[in-house]
Write a sequence for this structure.
């Protein structure tokens, strides 16, 4: 069990570092863009980026996740599998990009938005090779390669976009910066692969449809889940654009960008946990699976609940810190509502990964489908009347419904999952901390708030001295491997 935890800690440390730098760079660009462009133009950019995110998800169709799992289980066929995945990604990206551009023409989108989508879409095609190599890196447990290449891509992407805004090149300039970053990402991963002889990518000969069809069928659960998840997280922006216009899209996305930063934690843990849980289940080590997942759920609740409380009470100061408060005043209430979704998101990052690692990953697809239907229905009901607030409330409700569905399946397929023992203590500590935050009400006192929370958590037995020692050992193990 300790070996599993150490493996999670080491891999998470590397991926978190890479993902944090990447997301931080993207976040800086988004904040800069929101301040430079204003709410309406920022809304147009957010709409275009949302559409491209859907193109990326549809074109991947879970193939990258499947490739990680295949390489972990049997690396002897990695050449054929990676070749098939890359060719399929090229074809899918091209076709779906054409559909996206046709949609923009149909709704008479601004010419800059259409051109931005075209150029950035070409970048997605170029970056397909790098995405395949990222899956190979994870599958072969070469996490440092994956981390380094993603850091380089993230910095060049954000830097190029910020430079384009500074030089007043607009959306087209931003798109060119993204395309150049994708080209750099491609060349770096190509050179790493060539130097280390990781995989040989070529057209499968003699050419037959069977290998492609087999992979496509196997990727269906992951692909449908990714598509449904993307639709769930992005559909509110699309619907706000159609029902309310770019100004409300800009105000909503200003708050959503702050909320999205926190999603790095469960997303990276999911990438780390998938191969580990897959391996443990393959060995029928169900006890290790239960202990590991319950511990992660526990620690995530200790982080997400106080975060939601602090952000709710200090939302006005947080928005004012990043945006012109007069133009983005509506983002305050959006952030106060959206932030509570992280409690569910943090937990579902573990429960969904456990389902993915099991024999029936398609269960996640059905759960995600139910969440999408619910979210779209609530958005249709509430956005016309409540606008931004309706979209925010719909997101929170849908996330907690997703947890409920995950829990029902895990109870039947794996074990009786427990939440209450891990929620009430951080809940009590957060409630007491909230009183301190309410009466002092300053971002400058954030360290004090965290200290109060931790001390109360220790006092009520939420964290023991043994756990501090265990965390210290895990960090030391990760540092030793990194410097050794």
């Amino acid at each position: 069990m300790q070996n599993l935890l150490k493996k999670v800690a080491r891999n998470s440390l590397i991926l978190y570092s890479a993902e944090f730098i990447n997301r931080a760079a993207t976040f800086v660009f988004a904040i800069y863009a929101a301040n430079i462009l204003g709410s309406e133009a920022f809304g147009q950019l957010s709409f275009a980026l949302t559409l491209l995110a859907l193109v990326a998800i549809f074109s991947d169709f879970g193939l990258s996740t499947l490739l990680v799992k295949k390489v972990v289980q049997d690396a002897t066929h990695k050449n054929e599998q990676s070749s098939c995945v890359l060719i399929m990604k090229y074809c899918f990206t091209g076709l779906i990009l054409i559909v996206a551009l046709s949609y923009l023409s149909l709704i008479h989108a601004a010419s800059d938005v259409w051109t931005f989508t075209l150029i950035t879409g070409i970048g997605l095609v170029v970056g397909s090779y790098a995405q395949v190599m990222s899956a190979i890196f994870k599958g072969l447990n070469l996490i440092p390669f994956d981390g380094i290449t993603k850091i380089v891509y993230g910095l060049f992407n954000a830097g190029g976009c910020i430079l384009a805004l500074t030089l007043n090149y607009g959306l087209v300039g931003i798109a060119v910066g993204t395309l150049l970053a994708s080209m750099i990402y491609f060349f770096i991963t190509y050179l790493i692969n060539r130097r280390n002889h990781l995989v040989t990518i070529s057209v499968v000969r003699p050419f037959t449809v069977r290998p492609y069809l087999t992979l496509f069928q196997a990727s269906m659960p992951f692909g449908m889940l990714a598509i449904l998840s993307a639709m769930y997280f992005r559909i509110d922006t699309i619907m706000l654009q159609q029902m309310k216009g770019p100004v409300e899209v800009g105000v909503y996305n200003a708050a959503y960008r702050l909320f999205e930063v926190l999603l790095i934690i469960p997303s990276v843990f999911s990438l780390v946990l998938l191969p580990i849980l897959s391996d443990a289940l393959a060995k029928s080590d169900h006890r290790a699976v239960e202990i590991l997942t319950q511990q992660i759920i526990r620690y995530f609740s200790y982080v997400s609940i106080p975060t939601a409380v602090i952000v709710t009470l200090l939302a006005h100061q947080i928005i004012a810190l990043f945006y012109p408060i007069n133009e983005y005043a509506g983002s305050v209430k959006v952030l106060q509502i959206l932030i509570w979704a992280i409690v569910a998101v943090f937990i579902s990052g573990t429960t969904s990964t456990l389902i993915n690692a099991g024999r029936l990953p398609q269960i996640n697809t059905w759960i995600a489908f139910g969440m999408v239907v619910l979210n779209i229905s609530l958005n249709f009901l509430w956005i016309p009347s409540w606008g931004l607030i309706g979209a925010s409330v719909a997101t929170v409700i849908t996330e907690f419904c997703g947890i409920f569905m995950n829990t029902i399946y895990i109870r039947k397929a794996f074990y009786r999952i427990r939440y209450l023992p891990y929620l009430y203590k951080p809940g009590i500590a957060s409630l007491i901390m909230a009183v301190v935050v309410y009466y002092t009400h300053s971002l400058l006192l954030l360290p004090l708030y965290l200290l109060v929370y931790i001390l109360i958590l220790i006092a009520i037995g939420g964290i023991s001295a043994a756990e501090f020692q265990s965390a210290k050992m895990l960090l030391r193990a990760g540092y030793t491997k990194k410097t050794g």
